């Protein structure tokens, strides 16, 4: 048996330093509670902007919307920044494996990311959301196949799939193919229907599913937060619903609603194999002669600079032409 924890907490809106302190306290609580793994919600560090439209009707962007994006960008964290360093220190001190949702800042772009930090305080993987949902596509970049890791944890092989990525059958299959045993699903979806999805995935993948969602009310956001719904101070923007489900599809704990809480579940990891007697989605129940999935795990970058090639062209230009049209753009720019 191994104990895991779910930190159903709300961000300190747009204050990543204060939210980091809240995360560290929860890690310490989980450690004292005997948990070996603790899972935090989607976008916990950086703040999930529930209800904002960023002043972006089709065909136009407002200055107020640009200010909202600036606030989001400023509260985002960098993967090598002080916030995650503090969380790594707490993970090491408590010997707890941490899975935490963040808004990641990379240059001027933000990503919805989950970071995995092991019980030694080492970042062993991260996943950028492949497909931001709806209006999220306006403010978050798209991840690629290079950040779909399944890593070792004290509870078993662990990976993360964020919110509505869980409705992507091929992505789920990619995770099953890596032998995932602890399937983490940080989310901002607090609807009753979410639990049906989580139970289905546990049965389909014959894995433990841990889902974590924030609890946030309108009063938890700044006065000038221009939400499209939930305008009264006590209105609930996210109500939680965190839970842990077994490979049988049984709910072990939760869902918990409307309160901040660290919840615990004890996992019988023998069930991972016992439930594979009659179903293994990427093993004896697969039909590779009929269906096959190709997953591109290569990182995609918009600009690839090759300095050796550029230097070669500078040192030995084409002697048959004096025109700059045949010279690489980077070289022409440097000459001009």
From TrEMBL:
InterPro entries: C-N_Hydrolase, C-N_Hydrolase_sf, Nitrilases_CHs. Its EC number is 3.5.5.7. Pfam families: CN_hydrolase. GO terms for biological process: detoxification of nitrogen compound. It is an enzyme of class 3 (hydrolase). Signal peptide: none annotated. CDD domains: nitrilases_CHs. Keywords: Hydrolase. GO terms for molecular function: aliphatic nitrilase activity; nitrile hydratase activity. Residues 310-336 are annotated as: Disordered. Residues 2-269 form the CN hydrolase domain. PANTHER family: CN HYDROLASE DOMAIN-CONTAINING PROTEIN (PTHR46044:SF1), NITRILASE (PTHR46044). Belongs to the carbon-nitrogen hydrolase superfamily. Nitrilase family. This is Hydrolase, carbon-nitrogen family. It comes from Mycolicibacterium tokaiense.
């Amino acid at each position: 048996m191994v104990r895991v924890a779910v930190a159903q907490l709300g961000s300190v809106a747009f204050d990543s330093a204060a939210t980091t302190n809240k995360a560290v306290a929860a890690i310490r609580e989980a450690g004292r509670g005997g948990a070996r793994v603790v899972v935090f919600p989607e976008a916990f560090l950086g703040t999930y902007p529930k209800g904002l439209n960023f002043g972006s009707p089709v065909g136009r962007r407002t200055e107020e919307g640009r200010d909202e994006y600036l606030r989001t960008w400023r509260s985002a964290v960098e993967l090598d920044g002080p916030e995650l360093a503090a969380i790594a220190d707490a993970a090491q001190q408590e010997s707890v494996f941490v899975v935490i949702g963040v808004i990641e800042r990379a240059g001027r772009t933000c990503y919805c990311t989950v970071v995995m930090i092991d019980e030694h305080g080492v970042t062993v993987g991260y996943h950028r959301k492949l497909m931001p949902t709806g209006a999220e596509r306006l403010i978050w970049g798209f991840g690629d196949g290079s950040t779909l890791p399944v890593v070792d944890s004290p509870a078993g092989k662990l990976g993360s799939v964020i919110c509505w990525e869980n409705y992507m059958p091929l992505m789920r299959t990619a995770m099953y193919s890596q032998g995932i045993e602890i399937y983490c699903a940080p989310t901002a979806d607090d609807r009753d229907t979410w639990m049906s999805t989580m139970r289905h995935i546990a049965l389909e993948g014959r894995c433990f599913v841990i889902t974590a969602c924030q609890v946030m009310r309108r009063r938890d956001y700044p006065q000038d937060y221009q939400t499209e719904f939930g305008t009264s101070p006590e209105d609930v923007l996210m109500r939680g619903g965190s839970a842990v489900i077994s490979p049988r599809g049984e709910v072990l704990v939760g869902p918990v609603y409307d309160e901040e809480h660290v919840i615990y579940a004890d996992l019988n990891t023998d069930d991972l194999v016992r439930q594979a007697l009659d179903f293994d989605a990427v093993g004896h129940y697969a039909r590779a002669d009929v269906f096959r999935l190709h997953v591109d795990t290569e990182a995609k970058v918009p600009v690839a600079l090759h300095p050796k090639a550029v230097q070669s062209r500078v040192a030995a230009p084409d002697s048959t032409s004096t025109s700059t049209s045949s010279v690489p753009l980077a070289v022409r720019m440097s000459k001009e």
